[in-house]
Write a structure and sequence with these properties.
Pfam families: TPD1_C (PF24068). The chain has one domain (26-122): Immunoglobulin-like (Sandwich). It is 17% helix and 41% strand. The chain has one helix at 2-22; strands spanning 31-42, 45-54, 59-66, 81-83, 88-91, 102-107, 115-122. The protein binds 2-acetamido-2-deoxy-beta-D-glucopyranose. The site of 2-acetamido-2-deoxy-beta-D-glucopyranose has 4 residues, from β7.
């Protein structure tokens, strides 16, 4: 009798683990930022293409990247990227990034490191 209860609780424990694995909550790590050189020069500076992808089932809004020192000679639509003037870039004007990746291009002598800093996850 006691061993049956033990077996059931072990079973429940594993069911719990499995269901956790299937509906794992999203995190900042589900945002990926890919950057590549397009090969085009704008005012003599290389152009960089950036794609922000949300690999989570839930949308993520208020996505902010670390983009310290960001500069560009190629205008970027502020609805896609707004630079704070210090360390941060707001993506999509705070609107959610869903399955559809967000891309933009900028041009400067070197690529700036861009990594996710924060977001609001809507699960
Ligand atoms: C977000 O930015 C702040 C201030 O620059 C920094 O202290 C923090 O480590 C950043 N967080 C991440 C996840 O990059």
């Amino acid at each position: 009798m006691a061993s049956t209860i033990k077996n059931i609780s072990i079973l429940l424990f594993f069911i719990g683990l499995i269901s956790q694995a299937y509906c794992k909550p999203c995190s900042l790590e589900d945002l990926s930022v890919k950057q590549s050189e397009t090969g085009i020069k704008i005012q003599g500076k290389p152009e960089w293409s950036v794609t922000v992808t949300n690999n989570c089932e839930c949308g993520q809004s208020q996505v902010i990247l670390n983009c310290r020192g960001y500069k560009t000679v190629e205008p970027v639509d502020p609805n896609i990227l707004t630079y704070s003037g210090t360390d941060y870039c707001l993506i999509n004007y705070g609107k959610p990034i869903n399955k559809q990746p967000v891309s933009f291009k900028y041009a400067w002598d070197q690529a700036f490191s861009m990594t996710p800093n924060s977001s609001k996850i809507a699960c």
